[in-house]
């Protein structure tokens, strides 16, 4: 099995120095021989090495560097004088492309090229330059590079200044180099079937039959009495929920937060000028329901708002306990169930209002928001028309609703209730991976796991991406906490999990030593 990663251990840097010597001293006479049979690159401290493995043997490499001057600048002057201005905004240099003899096959080259382009593309480089040896010119051209200046160097080691621009990559190479990839995102959900256009009018009888079928299924799963289906995101659904609290003048509320999305609800409530107090817990920490009960017992609150599944940490807050408190103290319970609806069976029958979306656990396209309620909302003369929940509860379909989105939800809902068990089994399989010992929260719902990894796994996010495995870790709140998240809702999860397990089995053997800082890259 061939796979790639960013070099980070002493053993890897030793292997890189040996391969550097074998290639650029013994094979290409670019440097003088030495007794150690190792060659440490003069830009070693500035290099980022992408390496390719055959299981646990390092068999190939290349180096990225974006600090100036480039080595090619020293040979031909600043490369900008030869390149179009639009390609010079963010340049990098690629050096030390080398593969062990015996492994110079198309598969290895393709793997290294795909990793190269993933890394450079994700970093936002507008062009990559390279000094390509003339004996490997064909190889570089296969990778997409073209010559942009006259050859330089000695006859035995003649080099071609070559460039690959972002535009050229997107136009001619991106599709050809794209490999099978898998995502572990908690949304949006990959659609395996092609989504086609439909001209079915939202005013037609066939559309209304589809609309009623989706409504009935949503109400059956939620145990709510009413649901408004709105074109929009989860944020919009929450706006509609908060607008109802504002419109109905329900008095002072209590907002519970223990993560990013609880905080977002709080900020939205401020924008609606709602009166409320906050119970704030550390991220991933369960609420103290005795504390909440003592606050509700004062009689100061008429509504309570919380997130059921806090996606930022994977924490599942106790909806049953919240419902019991709300009933006992006669407060209106409002729940953001955007990440949990469809992930596991639960009832919203005790919720005054609740929200969900199409593009999360139920596995449909993003684009539809659901607002559940137990009572019909009174029509408003002051709320923005699109945020008035009453408009979505009066029987007729008030605004344009794309049939392609509604039909996609209809097909996804046909998987229930069996999908609950499928997600549960996937969740159990995911938890068997060794890295799940680093899971952040133990009170999770069967949709995703959040891990906070030690420093030895600091590059795992990009390393998995180099191998076509994309995990959730780019959101600012995840980067700040050092979190990575793995969701089970994607349709090709089983195949993705198998590949992830294979990569990690080799990965953990390779990174058995401490991760080095940039200053510690010494041989």
Low-confidence blocks of residues: 514-523
Mean pLDDT: 92
Strand content: 15-25%
Question: In whole angstroms, how far apart are the ends?
Answer: 28 Å
Main beta-sheet annotation: 8 strands, mixed
Structural class: alpha/beta
Regarding quaternary structure, what we see is single chain
Total DSSP E strands = 21
Helix content: 25-40%
Q: Helix count?
A: 15
The gyration radius over C-alpha positions equals: 28 Å
How does the overall form come out from the CA principal axes? Answer: elongated
Describe the protein in words.
Keywords: Aminotransferase, Pyridoxal phosphate, Transferase. Its cofactor is pyridoxal 5'-phosphate. It comes from Lysinibacillus irui. This is Aminotransferase class V-fold PLP-dependent enzyme. One of its GO terms (molecular function) is acyltransferase activity, transferring groups other than amino-acyl groups. It is a single chain. The protein is an alpha/beta fold and 523 residues long. Helices cover 34% and strands 20% of the residues. It has 15 helices and 21 strands. Strands 1, 2, 3, 4, 5, 6, 7 and 8 form an eight-stranded mixed sheet that branches. The chain has a seven-stranded mixed sheet with strand order 10-18-17-16-13-11-12, with helices on both faces. It is elongated, with a radius of gyration of 28 Å. The two termini are 28 Å apart. 41% of the residues are buried. The C terminus is likely disordered.
């Amino acid at each position: 099995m061939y796979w790639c990663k960013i070099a980070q251990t002493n053993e890897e840097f030793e292997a890189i120095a040996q391969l550097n010597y074998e290639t650029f001293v013994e094979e290409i006479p670019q440097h003088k021989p030495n007794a150690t049979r190792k060659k440490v690159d003069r830009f070693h401290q500035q290099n980022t090495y992408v390496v390719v493995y055959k299981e646990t043997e390092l068999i190939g490499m290349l180096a990225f560097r974006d600090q100036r001057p480039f080595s090619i600048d020293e040979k031909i002057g600043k490369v900008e004088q030869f390149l179009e201005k639009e390609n010079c905004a963010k340049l990098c240099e690629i050096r030390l492309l080398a593969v062990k003899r015996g492994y110079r096959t198309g598969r290895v080259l393709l793997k290294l090229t795909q990793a190269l382009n993933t890394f450079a593309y994700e970093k936002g480089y507008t062009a990559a330059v390279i000094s390509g040896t003339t004996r490997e010119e064909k190889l570089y051209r296969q990778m997409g590079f073209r010559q942009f200046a006259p050859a330089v160097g000695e006859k035995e080691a003649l080099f071609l200044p070559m460039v690959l621009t972002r535009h050229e990559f997107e136009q001619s190479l991106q599709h050809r180099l794209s490999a099978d990839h898998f995502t572990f995102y908690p949304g949006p959900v990959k659609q395996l079937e092609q989504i086609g256009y439909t001209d079915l009018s939202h005013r037609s009888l066939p559309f209304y039959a589809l609309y009623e079928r989706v409504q009935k299924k949503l109400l059956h799963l939620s145990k709510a009495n009413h649901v408004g289906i709105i074109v929009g995101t989860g944020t919009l659904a929450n706006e509609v929920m908060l607008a109802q609290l504002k419109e109905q003048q329900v008095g002072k509320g209590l907002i519970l937060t223990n993560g990013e999305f609880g905080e977002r609800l709080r900020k939205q409530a401020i924008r609606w000028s709602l009166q409320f107090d906050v119970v704030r817990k550390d991220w991933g920490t369960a609420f103290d329901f005795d504390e909440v009960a003592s606050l509700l017992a004062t009689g100061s609150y008429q509504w309570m708002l919380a997130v059921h599944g806090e996606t930022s940490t994977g924490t599942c807050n106790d909806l049953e306990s919240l419902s019991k408190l709300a009933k006992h103290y006669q407060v209106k319970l409002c729940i953001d169930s955007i990440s949990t609806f469809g992930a596991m069976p639960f009832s919203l029958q005790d919720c005054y209002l609740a929200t969900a979306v199409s593009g999360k656990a139920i596995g449909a396209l993003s684009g539809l928001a659901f607002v559940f309620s137990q009572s019909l909302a009174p029509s408003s003369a002051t709320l923005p028309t699109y945020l008035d929940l009453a408009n979505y509860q009066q029987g007729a379909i008030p605004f344009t609703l794309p049939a392609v989105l509604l039909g996609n939800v209809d097909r996804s809902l046909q998987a229930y209730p069996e999908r609950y068990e499928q997600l549960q089994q996937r969740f159990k399989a995911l938890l068997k991976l060794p890295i799940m010992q680093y899971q952040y929260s133990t009170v999770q719902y069967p949709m995703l796991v959040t891990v906070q990894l030690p420093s030895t796994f600091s590059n795992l996010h990009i390393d998995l991406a180099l191998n076509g495995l994309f995990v959730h870790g780019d959101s600012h709140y995840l980067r700040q906490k050092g979190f990575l998240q793995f969701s089970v809702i994607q349709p090709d999860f089983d195949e993705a999990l198998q590949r992830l397990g294979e990569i990690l089995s080799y990965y953990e053997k390779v990174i058995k030593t401490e991760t080095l800082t940039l200053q510690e890259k010494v041989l």
